[in-house]
Amino acid sequence: MSEWQEYTLGDIVDIKHGYAFKGEFFSETPTTDILVTPGNFKIGGGFKSDKLKYYNGEIPDGFVLSHEDIIVTMTDLSKQADTLGYSAKVPIDSSKVFLHNQRIGLLIFKDKSFDKDFIYWLMRAEHYQKFVAGSATGATVKHSSPSRIRAFKFKAPTSNSLRKKIAKILSNYDDLIENNLKRIKLLEESARLTYEEWFLRFRIDGKKLDIDPDTGLPFGWEYSGLNNISTFTNGYAFKSKDFVEYGHPVIKIKNIDGKMVDVHNTNRISANDVLKVNDKFKLHEGDLLIAMTGATVGKLGFVPYSNDACYLNQRVGKIQSEYLFFTFLALSGTSGQKQILNFAGGAAQPNISGDQILAVKNIIPAKDILDKFELLSNNALSQILNFTRKNQLLKEARDILLPRLMTGMIDTDDMDIAV
C-alpha cells in the first residue's frame, strides 16, 4: 500500500474571504450576476442552482469566481439547514458571472502539485466537517474563519497520482448523478411544454383544435375547479416531543422546496410511535405534496424513493388524482400559483386549506384528452422517479466510499482508474 503522511490544510491552501455585497443592489429580477451564498451549497457539499441570488450593482475587482473554483462555506444558514464548512465547485456556465460573497471562502492553492479535487472531496468528508463544526463560534448561527479551517490536519497519500485516483473514483459517482439530473430536467421540460401546447395553445399532435365560440375553449372543455378531478388529505399533527434521531421521516413544510420532496433532512418518529398513526398518513413514492403555510405556501413536490416509510405532517397536504401530473402542472403553473397566493392572503403567515387548493380553477379538457395526456405524463413521471431512485443509490454508495477512501481504509493502488 502507498505511503500516507499527515498534512495541514494551511500548508496547501490559503482561504480568501469574499466581499460584503450591499443588499440594496440585490435583484428580484434575474441578472447575469449571481451572488454565491451558503444557500447554494447542498447538504453534505456540492453546488445547487435552485436558489440563486441576483446582483445588480457595481462589482469590485477580485471577487469574480472562475468556473471550477473550489469554495467553502464559513457559516451555516440556520439551525434547520447547517451548511458550515461544506465545499462546492463553481459551475461551468459561460452565461453567468458568479460573485464571491463574504460568507464564502475561496481556496487559493499554494501547493500547485496537490490535486485540487482531492481537497474538494476531503472537505466533503465527515472528519473534516466535524472539525470545522467543532471549531466554530456563535450561539444561534455558527461561524468559522479561514485560520480555523486552515488548521485542519489530515492524512493523505504522498503520491499525487494516487490522490487523483481517489478523487476520480468519487467524481465518477457525481458525474453519473449529474447525468441523471439532466435527464430528469429534460423529462420535466418536455412534459411542461406538452402541457402548454395542448392546454394553453390548444394544439394537439400539431393540429389546432376547433374552438367553441361560447366558451373560448375547445368543444367539450371547461374552466372549473380542480376538485372535479382531484381529492385532498391533510397531514397528521405529530408532536415535537416525539421526534427522535433515528426512525421514520416526517415530511414537513421545510421538506417541500422543489419538484422532489427532501426525505433525508427530516424530523423522525420512532417505529413504536408510528404504530399509533393511521395508514392514510403514510406516504408512497410518487405521492404529490403541497405546502399549506408560510413563505413556501403552494410549493409542490413528488415523494421520491425512501428506505424508510415517510409520514405526512400537518400543514402539508397530499393531492390524489387520476390525473396527477396534469394537476401538478396546473397548480405549479403561473395561474395556479397566483390563485393559491390569493387564497392564502397577504398575512405574515399565509395559510391555505385543502378546499381552497382544490378550488383553484384551470382549463379541464375532455376526458379522452386528459387520459391521453396522463398516459404520456405518467411515463415521464415514472422515469423521473426511477432516475431519482438511481441517484439516491449512487449517493449512498459514494457516501459509504468517501470516508474509507479518504482515510486509506480502501487500498486503491491496484485499481485501474483513468485520471
Give structural attributes.
Adenine-n6-DNA-methyltransferase TaqI, Chain A, domain 2, five-stranded mixed beta sheet, alpha+beta, four-stranded antiparallel beta sheet
List the helices and strands and how they pair.
Blueprint: E1 4-8, H1 9-12, E2 13-17, E3 26-27, E4 33-36, E5 53-55, E6 64-65, E7 70-73, E8 87-89, E9 97-100, E10 104-109, H2 116-122, H3 126-135, H4 146-150, E11 153-157, H5 160-199, E12 203-204, E13 207-208, E14 222-225, E15 230-234, E16 243-244, E17 248-251, E18 267-269, H6 271-274, E19 288-291, E20 300-302, E21 311-312, E22 316-321, H7 324-332, H8 334-344, H9 354-358, E23 361-364, H10 367-406
Parallel strand pairs: 4-9, 17-21
Antiparallel strand pairs: 1-11, 2-10, 3-5, 4-5, 6-9, 7-8, 7-10, 12-13, 14-23, 15-22, 16-18, 17-18, 19-20, 19-22
Helix pairs in contact: 2-5, 5-10
Describe this protein's structure.
With 419 residues, this protein is an alpha+beta fold. The strands form 7 sheets. A 5-stranded mixed beta sheet has the order 3-5-4-9-6, with no helix packed on it. It starts with a strand and ends in a 13-residue tail after the last helix. The protein has helices spanning 9-12, 116-122, 126-135, 146-150, 160-199, 271-274, 324-332, 334-344, 354-358, 367-406, and strands at residues 4-8, 13-17, 26-27, 33-36, 53-55, 64-65, 70-73, 87-89, 97-100, 104-109, 153-157, 203-204, 207-208, 222-225, 230-234, 243-244, 248-251, 267-269, 288-291, 300-302, 311-312, 316-321, 361-364. It is globular. Among the domains are: 7-156, Adenine-n6-DNA-methyltransferase TaqI, Chain A, domain 2, CATH 3.90.220; 222-364, DNA methylase specificity domains (Adenine-n6-DNA-methyltransferase TaqI, Chain A, domain 2, Alpha-Beta Complex). Strand 19 (288-291) and strand 20 (300-302) form a beta hairpin.
